[in-house]
Specification:
The chain is mainly beta. 12% of the residues lie in helices and 51% in strands. The chain has one domain: SH3 type barrels.
Length: 73
């Protein structure tokens, strides 16, 4: 999982995460990774509209967000 997160950060990619919170709740987040350190990463969360800190070990799945070429950003 860590390798996928590193690639997304290097590519400046927006990704969807399936994430398990400390309380055991599973959530889906759309994030852009800002920085990574030992076991954690900081990302801008488009769901919460704020920077959040995530534990790499709690990431259950990732998938890149594919944008259409004709999409207006």
């Amino acid at each position: 999982m860590k390798e996928q997160l590193i690639k997304a950060m290097q590519r400046n990619q927006i990704i969807d995460l399936m994430y398990m919170s400390k309380g055991g709740e599973i959530t889906k987040r759309r994030v852009k990774i800002i920085k990574m350190t030992d076991g954690i990463f900081q990302a801008y969360c488009f769901v919460k509209h704020a920077k959040r800190t995530f534990i790499i070990e709690n990431v259950l799945a990732t998938s890149p967000v594919i944008r259409k070429e004709n999409e207006v950003v």
